[in-house]
Amino acid sequence: MKKLKTLSIALALLFSAGSYAQTADEIINNYIENIGGKEKLEKLKGIKMVGNMKMQGMEIPFEQLSTKDGKQLVSIELQGNKMVWSAFDGQVSWQRNQMTMEAEKSDNEATQNLKNELAQFPDPFLNYKEKGYTVELIGKETIDGAETFKIKLTKKPVLVNGESLPNITHYYFDTENFVPIVVESTVNQGPMKGQTVKSTLSDYQEVDGIYFPFSMGSQFQTMEFKEIKLNPEVDAASFALPSKK
Question: pTM for the whole thing?
Answer without folding.
Answer: 0.87
